[in-house]
């Protein structure tokens, strides 16, 4: 009937019999020897079969296969809806909020997270069993995400609703934004698998823009001449060599990465009695994966050149406050919403913290996890595989 909407369903059947494991292993080994790869799991088998031609399959395995050597039992039969994907962008407007639930040594740190402020309302509307949250990178727990916000994706498992209308997502967006002023969502909409792939494809090419409040702690005060010098260095091509930061050495492989600084703007702030003319605002655009904090303070020489080295004259720099002001990735592309939504609606002032005591705002708990800043490798691509859970390290 034309007035009935069809809903694709997934039927999962699990059969077992005495020799199924040994026969599966033989099949996978033969296919792998032919270049199929994979392993003895459903996804491993799918990986092996995806790259094997019909001719290679027939050469490796009997067609048709031999009958089962014993009785075959149906163990599991499950019917579920196809996955639903909902995307958008979020802005994080406070400095004490992790992106995902922060569990440290089995204990909860902080009362909630960006994920928990966004996901429940969407899961409820879609009548889904659960959801997996992923995003185009993540900011540190003490860093705000401003500007257009950061692209994020929810993968909804077994939704009972076929689709979400534009009116429903608009109302849902308003509900999320009214519930808590720490996180604001925009461009919320249902997306498809192609949009997921577009998000993954753009991850490695995206550019990030930052605004930082810094202090020069050694050498002479910052001058306008220093600002011009830095701008020129970035324009001519500035490449950082950054060893794995000290704060994450316990959980990451020691490596040296090269990242470009695409633009660099330094603005000395008016001096007062407290800082003697040493405060400055730093605005920069970088390749994805650059360690901005380490660029500013040098990380005990593990980032070269550091900001202090570029300024010269024995200067050392500390970072007081940091904001991500843009993730230059135009996503999601659904119905032109992203282009139509005005930036004038983004009410967070990226310079608001610069107008107050720089030491008064960023009072991070001294016993907090030193890795709180980025609970995931900023160099890692967003693995948006529609057929597996989006397992983002929290």
Automatic annotation (TrEMBL):
SUPFAM superfamilies named among the record's database cross-references: Pseudouridine synthase (SSF55120)
InterPro entries (UniProt xref): PsdUridine_synth_cat_dom_sf (IPR020103), Pus10-like (IPR039894), Pus10-like_C (IPR048741)
Keywords: Isomerase, tRNA processing
GO annotation, biological process: tRNA pseudouridine synthesis
Region (Disordered): 342-394
EC code(s) of this entry: 5.4.99.25
GO molecular function: RNA binding; tRNA pseudouridine(55) synthase activity
Isomerase recorded as keyword: yes
Pfam family, one: Pus10_C
Pus10-like C-terminal domain ranges (all copies): 85-328
Family: Belongs to the pseudouridine synthase Pus10 family.
Protein name, per record: tRNA pseudouridine(55) synthase
Annotated organism of origin: Macrostomum lignano
Source species taxonomy: Eukaryota, Metazoa, Spiralia, Lophotrochozoa, Platyhelminthes
């Amino acid at each position: 009937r034309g007035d009935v909407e069809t809903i694709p369903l997934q039927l999962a059947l699990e059969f077992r019999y005495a020799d199924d494991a040994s026969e599966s292993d033989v099949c996978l080994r033969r296919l792998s020897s032919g270049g199929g790869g994979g392993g003895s799991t459903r996804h491993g088998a799918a990986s092996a079969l995806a790259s094997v031609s019909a001719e290679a399959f027939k050469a490796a395995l009997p067609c048709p296969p031999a009958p089962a050597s014993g009785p075959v039992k149906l163990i599991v039969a499950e019917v579920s809806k196809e996955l639903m994907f909902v995307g958008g962008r979020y802005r994080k407007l406070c400095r004490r909020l992790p992106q995902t639930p922060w569990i440290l040594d089995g204990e909860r740190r902080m009362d909630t997270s960006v994920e928990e402020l966004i996901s429940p309302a969407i899961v409820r509307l879609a009548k889904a069993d659960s959801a997996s949250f992923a995003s185009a990178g993540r900011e540190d727990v003490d860093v705000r995400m401003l500007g257009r916000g950061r692209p994020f994706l929810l993968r909804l498992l077994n939704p009972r609703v076929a689709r979400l209308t534009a009116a429903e997502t608009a109302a849902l967006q308003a509900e999320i934004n009214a519930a808590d002023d720490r996180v604001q969502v925009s461009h919320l909409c249902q997306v498809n698998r192609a949009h997921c792939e577009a998000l993954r494809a753009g991850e490695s090419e995206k550019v990030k823009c930052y605004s930082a409040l810094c202090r020069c702690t050694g050498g002479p005060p910052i001058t306008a001449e220093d600002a011009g010098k830095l701008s020129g260095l970035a324009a001519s091509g500035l490449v950082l060599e950054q060893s794995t930061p000290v704060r994450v050495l316990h959980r990451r492989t020691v490596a040296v990465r090269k990242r470009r600084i695409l633009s660099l703007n330094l603005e000395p702030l008016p001096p007062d009695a407290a800082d003697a003319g040493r405060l400055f605002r730093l605005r920069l655009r970088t390749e994805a994966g650059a360690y901005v904090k380490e660029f500013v303070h040098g990380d005990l020489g593990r980032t070269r050149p550091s900001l202090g080295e570029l300024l010269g004259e024995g200067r050392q720099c500390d970072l007081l406050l940091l904001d991500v002001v843009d993730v230059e990735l135009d996503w999601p592309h659904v119905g032109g919403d992203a282009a139509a939504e005005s930036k004038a609606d983004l009410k967070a002032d990226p310079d608001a913290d610069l107008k107050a005591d720089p030491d008064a705002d960023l009072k991070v708990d001294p016993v907090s996890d030193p890795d709180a800043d980025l609970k995931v490798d900023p160099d890692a691509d967003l693995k948006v595989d529609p057929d597996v859970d989006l397992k983002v390290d929290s």
